[in-house]
Amino acid sequence: MSNIDNYSKGGSGGSLGLLSFLSNKKGESYKAKYYRFGVIITISIVFLVSVIVFNNDNNDKDNNYNGYSNHEKGGDEKNEVITKDFKVIATQTGTDKVAGYMYLPKCLADKTGNSCTRPNCIREECKTWGHFYDTIYNQYLGKYSLPSSPPIQLLEIGYFNGKGFEAYTKMLDRNPKHELHSMEISCIEHGPRSEGKWPWGNFAEVHQMYPQLLKKERLHCGDASQYSFLKSIWDTKMKRTTTTNTKNSNTNNSNSATSTTTATTNSQSSSPPPLMVVIDDGAHLTDQMTTSLFFWIPRLEPGGILIMEDIQPIVEANKFRTHVLPQVMKDIHWCGGEITGSMNKEIHDEPCFPQIQSFIASIHCEMHICVFIRNNKPSYEASEEDSIATINAFSDDTVKQCLFG
Predict the structure, then answer these.
(1) Residues 228, 233: Cα–Cα separation, whole Å
(2) Could you read off the pLDDT of 359-372 as tens digits, one per residue?
(3) Is 105 part of a structural domain of the chain?
(4) Domain count, the chain
(5) d(CA 123, CA 317)
(6) Is 102 a domain residue?
(7) Residue 302: phi, psi to the nearest 5?
(8) Averaged pLDDT for residues 94-123
């Protein structure tokens, strides 16, 4: 049997037959040599093409993660993978942002309703204490949690007992270019509210990070519903375009002895990262939530976000959900001019909130939490008038007029 026949039938155990076929044989005909040479070339081409396709496929897999390009996920050429899980982190710190997962099963199992915070709610997730915010925070903070992630400045409104701030800190601790700030009213001077003081105790001081945050001028004690306080902290401690001779940035802070640095020393001396995230977890009062929206949306960098927590199910926040949020949603679709509808009826289209309409690209809401996403317009230093929502933003007549004409 010839070598060709031997190869076609498998020869000496397949691989040995192939080696025998590829070796040069003395005395074989020119026809056999040419045939053998052609087979060798064909096998080589097929092998090279297979290697190229395999490598390209692997590169595609490396450069994509769950359907997003590596750039979109915030990684670099090292193809880093997001491993931080906000649910795990927040459970460890004890914040109520994910506490719903823990308390809901007990609530539903208790037929008396005594284990539920709001037993009369129809929707089961609303019955229990705590929230389910991990999906929002994984989506919007995850891309900033890598060593190669872009710089980020984050502001929390409502430090309270520090458990939420600790969760953000741990979520972003691998990013060497992150800078976190928080605002809290309970650490101002103790005394009557009528005198601009706080009579109900310092909730913030119970957290271990409290002294260090004061010293580094990252925790700012004051009323975040007041334009003057917001503007001062923004200018001197965050944006850092204005310096101050005041040794302690924490207005009316009874713990002023713990902070002796000026606005241009320590960590505040370097250029600040861009403000990309603002989180309102404060008093959850409609007017204060709206103040956060109007003040911070223009000042966020392009692509930044404002996260508004707890817009339901508490009465104090209800008008933000029923009055403010629908008007912002209408403004996202605003075109301007006359809109011609059926029977040639013309409706004059006006934005509800022209102060912020031109800065919001979209809104993403999940249960009791919304994310206002900044468009690509450069950050803007709005005037005091434009930084504060007018009272008629919550008026039933004003809302009806803007929404329905």
Answers:
(1) 9
(2) 999 999 999 999 99
(3) no
(4) 2
(5) 18
(6) no
(7) -50, 130
(8) 96
